[in-house]
Specification:
The protein is an alpha+beta fold and 423 residues long. The chain has 17 helices and seven strands. The radius of gyration is 34 Å and the shape is elongated.
Length: 423
């Protein structure tokens, strides 16, 4: 059995250096994963900023980080890598500190740890190219660090007399954990290996917990900044007096001090999402808010401001809901339409939806839709939308001020407080 001095004194430190590079870049990748798509962390770390391309680049950290390759068993792949490098580093240190047979045993295990890790990285690389169609430069550094450490180990150890023992994985496991040699106890081998495993797992768990906490704090701060910006933008808006026909009834308390007016399109997907949110906000306002719906269909059959067709049939739906208002069933028809995902519709489709509204007289509704009065009412709504220079839906006004964000209960609560302070 060769003595430790047969090994070059630079051999293990060189492996250790490569592994330290790998664990550092694994930590950067773990940070990026914790941040989400990785943009904010990329801006904070100069290495990531200089190495990672854009989302559509062939060398995109963000694209790989947002793919199915980013996690394994619900844990970030980068954190698996970090824990692996931590274990390999601790094992390398144990090899450096050991002597004689124990050193040979641990060196043999280190070799196979590096082999298995390198093969796994090769699989990740192939998957990234074949399925994600992008390479993560930071990931590549970790691959190269691991492959480099394996190469150093291989080219140095294959010259040693014990190489045949090192490269036999079954012999390695038997001699390391099952069959003690001479005065090298099973406990010594077992404690060093599993002590390293425990510490590396503990490090990984600690980093995951810390990054999750940091992410929550950063998310809370980001949310607070967004809310502040939206409120400042709202307060800077000019207050208008909107002139709309009285046909559509208010939703909420008749004398509520805060008026919400929504210009909407029944074929707009965002409008369908906003509709129940606005009604819920009014319901939770303790009688302080009321809601009025105004039609603004993005359909050039009635909206002459549209240069191209976006929502064919939206004008029919707009007339239908106004005609339902004549039968005191405006909000029932409003909800029935938004409960359907509509891409294109004709009069028969409109009447089919109307038939689902209890109490609605279909023939009366059909006659109203085809009447000049329905068109006149719709044009008055769109004239007001044009006067406000609206370009899309939903467009929301709160006490005459244009609210230019998606409605959210927290934001509307703060706006309600602002508006009530001015009363």
């Amino acid at each position: 059995m060769p003595q430790p001095q047969n090994r070059s004194k630079f051999f293990l430190p060189a492996i250790l250096l490569f592994l330290l590079v790998g664990i550092y870049f694994s930590y950067i990748l773990t940070e990026m994963h914790a941040a989400g798509a990785g943009a904010s962390q990329t801006e904070k770390n100069w290495l990531a900023q200089s190495m990672c391309g854009g989302q559509d680049s062939s060398f995109s950290c963000a694209k790989v980080n947002s793919s199915s390759l980013a996690t394994l068993l619900g844990i970030p792949m980068a954190l698996w890598g970090f824990s692996f490098f931590a274990f390999a580093i601790l094992l390398t240190i144990n090899v450096m500190l050991s002597r004689d047979k124990l050193q040979e045993k641990l060196a043999s295990l280190l070799f196979w740890v590096l082999v298995i890790g390198s093969l796994f990285d090769l699989v990740l690389l192939i998957y990234s190219v074949a399925f994600v169609h992008s390479l993560c430069p930071l990931c590549m550094v970790t691959y190269i660090a691991l492959w480099g450490s394996l190469a150093i180990f291989y080219f140095h150890e294959k010259k040693q007399p014990t190489w045949a023992n090192l490269k036999n994985i079954q012999n390695t496991l038997n001699r390391l954990l099952v069959k003690p040699d001479g005065n090298i106890t099973r406990v010594a081998s077992f404690s060093r290996v599993f002590g390293s495993l425990f510490i590396s797992a503990l490090l990984g768990f600690g980093i995951l917990t810390t990054l999750k906490s940091d992410k929550v704090t950063a998310k809370d701060q980001k949310t607070e900044n967004i809310i502040t910006k939206i409120l400042m933008d709202y307060q800077a808006q000019e207050r208008h007096t909107l002139k709309l026909p009285d046909l559509h009834p208010w939703y909420g308390e008749k004398n509520a001090p805060i008026e919400i007016i929504e210009f909407s399109d029944f074929m707009c997907p965002f409008c369908a999402k906003v509709a129940p949110v606005l009604k819920q906000i009014v319901n939770n306002s303790n009688g302080k808010m009321r809601l009025k719906f105004a039609n603004f269909p993005l359909d050039n059959s009635c909206n002459k401001g549209m240069s191209r067709q976006l929502h064919p049939g939206a004008c029919l739906l707009a007339k239908a809901v106004s005609c339902a208002a004549h039968q005191k069933l405006f909000w029932q028809m409003h909800d029935a339409i938004f409960n359907h995902e509509i891409h294109q519709i004709d009069i028969q489709g409109v009447l089919k939806i109307a038939s689902q509204v209890p109490g609605l007289q279909i023939e009366q509704l059909k006659s109203c839709i085809n009447s000049p009065g329905a068109e006149t009412h719709l044009q008055k709504e769109m004239k007001e939308a044009d006067r406000m220079r609206l370009e899309g839906t939903p467009s929301i006004f709160i006490n005459g001020k244009h609210y230019k964000a998606m409605p959210h209960p927290v934001l509307f609560q703060k706006i309600m407080e602002i508006e009530l302070d001015k009363k």
